Structure prediction request, 252 residues.
Amino acid sequence: MIKFFRHIRQRLLSENKFSKYLLYAIGEIVLVVIGILIALQINNWNENVKKLEQEKIYYCKIKEDLESDKININRSLESLNERVFSAKRALNNLYDGVDDKSIILEDYLSAIRSIKFLPSKLAIQDIVSSGKLENLKNANLKGVILKHYSDLDGALNRIVANNKDVSKYVYEYDLSDFGIHQLSTYENDFGIELLDKMPNVNWTSDKNNLIYKQFQDHMSMTIIVSSREKQLLNQVLLSTEKLISELEYNCE
Prediction:
């Protein structure tokens, strides 16, 4: 093609047709410029396609994290229901004067255990840390995503603070008198010989005993804090489900 145009230029010059040559040269320049502009346009189009694909990938990764969060929130909620149930039963047995202290202590162990919700934030952390947040062009959706994770962090911070208030009760007990070592769960750990030498205080039948009062407060706070945690997690779950729904369209 280049040889073809060069041949035309040379023929026009040899025939002293300068005006035609000039027009031809201008036309050739215009064609080159148009070609460059088209190439740039195609390149820009390709770049935009790549950015749109990358944006879609980000939305889909966020959606995957949220779907994982939804599963883990529900597991945590089930665990909290069991925790509240155990704490209530422990208090009922305490007030009803159940003779076997181990029954109350078994519920105590269940009441202080729960499955904590740990969110999956790999996608949003990758987007923010790599400076790719600006690649999310849907301003409304980006705002919803950022608000969700901001609210999530706020809820988790409150949950952690509340659980610290409950955890302190564990360290207030005189553990030897409390009798956790008497549970069959720890029988092999302590051994029969050692267990026979350890205290066996029947504090569950003495309302004036300090441990009785501490236990009462501990289980009551466990119910209150766990119920509050359920409330916060249900709010997070609602936000998670709503955001998953909004991301569905962007992952198709």
In short: Residues 2-251 form one domain.
